[in-house]
Amino acid sequence: MYKLLSHNDLDGVGCGILAKLSFGEQVKVRYNSISGLNREVEWFLENEGKDTFLFITDLSVSEENEKRLEEFFQAGGKVKLIDHHKTALRYNDYKWGHVVVEDEEGKLTSATSLLYEYLISHQLIEPSDATAEFVELVRQYDTWEWEKNENHHAQRLNALFFLLSIDQFEEKMISRLQTSDHFYFDEFETKILDMEENKIDRYIR
């Protein structure tokens, strides 16, 4: 079994989508605010055994939980913390930490892009053009690179994330990435995104 504790923004939910693509029914995903993560980690350490592989993405834990996770790991527990924030670089001191702010090409990373690379390198996910395109949109939005590149698809993906519930967003994205050659917005999504943009345009005017 796997458990993923992730942030409740687009990048964090992007990680949840990748985890469900990889592990299906074998993974439990919980989305958290920054303040809510530590309660989830404490609950995991107290109630779930070493049979469950814990992933933490796009969030940092308290110093106390950092020590407890190290003890869990040293006792044979399976844990991986993946993040892209400079404030999390200290986790690279642990075998279970993987924090990269910029990739080898000098591009800023996101939790979704780092998790995708991890899953591919461990042969836990089947790479596809559609998934790679989705991951890149999330990365560009989360790093604000979309503004420089004028990649409005990334901005629209985040807008869609806020227009749907997390469950709806997850379900739509997982289905699309499993069945499509390339990432796209469907007719319904395009319609509601256009309506939202028109509403904003009218408000600005």
Polypeptide structure, described:
The protein has 205 residues and is an alpha/beta fold. It has helices spanning 10-23, 37-47, 63-74, 111-121, 129-142, 145-149, 152-163, 166-179, 187-204; strands at residues 2-7, 27-32, 53-57, 79-83, 97-99. Helix content is 54%, strand content 12%. Strands 2-1-3-4-5 form a 5-stranded parallel beta sheet, with helices on both faces. The termini are far apart. The model has no long low-confidence stretch (mean pLDDT 95).
Give the arrangement of secondary structure elements:
Blueprint (H helix, E strand, L loop, with lengths): L1 E6 L2 H14 L3 E6 L4 H11 L5 E5 L5 H12 L4 E5 L13 E3 L11 H11 L7 H14 L2 H5 L2 H12 L2 H14 L7 H18 L1
Parallel strand pairs: 1-2, 1-3, 3-4, 4-5
Taking all residues together, what is the mean pLDDT? Answer: 95
Poorly predicted regions are none
> Which sequence of SSEs, written as H and E, runs from N to C?
EHEHEHEEHHHHHH
Give the biggest sheet.
5 strands, parallel
Helix content: 40-55%
Please list the strands of the largest sheet in the order they lie side by side: 2-1-3-4-5
Rg over CA atoms? 18 Å
CA-CA gap between termini: 52 Å
* Beta strand count: 5
Share of residues in strands: 5-15%
Shape: globular
Number of helices: 9
Which structural category do the helix and sheet elements fall into? alpha/beta
